[in-house]
Amino acid sequence: MASDLDISPSYVALMERNQRPVTAEILLRLAKAYKIDFSEFTADSGQDLVAQLRLAARDAIFTDIDLNAVDIADIAHSFPGFAEALLRLYTAYKEEQFALADRRQHTTNDGRPFEGDSIAAVRSFLAARKNYFPVLDTLSEKLAGRVSQGGGLPAFLQNEHGFKVRRLPAEVMSGSLRRLDWHRKELLLNEALDHSSQNFQMAQQLAYLEFENEIASTVAEGNFESQNSERLAHRAIAAYCAGAILMPYAAFAKAVEARRYDIDSLARFFGTSFEQTAHRLTTLQKPGHERVPFFFIKVDVAGNVSKRLNSGAFPFARHGGGCPLWTVHQVFTSPRRVVTQWMELPDGQRFFSIARTVHSGGGSHGLPSVDRAIAIVCEARYADRLVYASEHPQTHKPTPIGIACQLCQRTECTSRAEPPIGRQVLPDNYRRTEAPFGFSDA
């Protein structure tokens, strides 16, 4: 190499050890001698490594270390192997924190597991696939075309499967929203359901009739340990198919861009509810036709999470939803109104949230009903594609939130309900902080 570049071997050794600069002249000699196209070295992989290191350096565990941007970039470029090793260790550390939070969340006070694990298993199954099932989506889209040509859902069920759709009073349905009567060949629907809910129930029943083998095969991929998990997954996949039948992928993906993800506008166009439409937005990850990846959460007024879906790599996909500073917990005071919010996690990641209450049940006097809140969240870099962000630009100061109290290191937070994992609580016999807990630095 020294001979090819017309320099001394010692100078080559010094450059290899980063003790001499690689000048523009040396670069030209390299390109000429070895026929190198330096455009190959301009990929974003180096910048991605720097960005990942900077994100990790913001963690509370490094707060007492001065890690400036120049040093981080120097490590990433000069010692990429070491940087990758550090990121693997950091990832393992965060995974252990999540695993510890999982164990605490899914055990009783005396350490025994409780039955909520079946729900956690199904959520992990959906999250691992980014809530996208290409085979079922394609089948559902084709079926939607057949349904449209066949005159709609009731006509299709009658002509193709021999089931007549009947709507019966709530007291006759005895607590059921939908029931398939094989003897009389009727699909019975609770007439208290609104139009979009009736359509969804018909679409879900049609999915069971048309795709039972495919749904069962998809569920089998989860290798669930309990029958509860299998049944919950089976229901979730059938609901996925129902959404894909009512909102076929190609048409829906085109509409979301044309309407800039306006959920109300999309719901009116497809005849679906606000929740059904928001749910469908989390499934648009077909290769080559991807749309904005969203995180979806549904909570009740007590903060219990009844649905959590994820089509991106969001840190609150497993434990998100517990921060009281998130507006998803505050929209109950303004029913049916869309509330937007910029949020920033302790590591500096920013997200854009769209939250609103949804109503279910009721339908006639005396029938029970319930209000829940839903929110869909995307990374800040996608927000300008949403109609909601034009009214709430990113120049607004973001709300500092945490994933969950036990995983959040914002020690000054006055809304904290419990201390974070690994932090020692200070005694308050001589000093009481404004925050519920005072912590040691280590």
TrEMBL record:
It comes from the Bacteria. Residues 1-41 form the HTH cro/C1-type domain. GO terms for molecular function: DNA binding. GO terms for biological process: regulation of DNA-templated transcription. Pfam families: HTH_3 (PF01381), Peptidase_M78 (PF06114), ScfRs (PF09856). InterPro entries: Cro/C1-type_HTH, HTH_RamB, IrrE_HExxH, Lambda_DNA-bd_dom_sf, ScfR_C. Transmembrane segments: none annotated. Belongs to the short-chain fatty acyl-CoA assimilation regulator (ScfR) family. This is HTH cro/C1-type domain-containing protein.
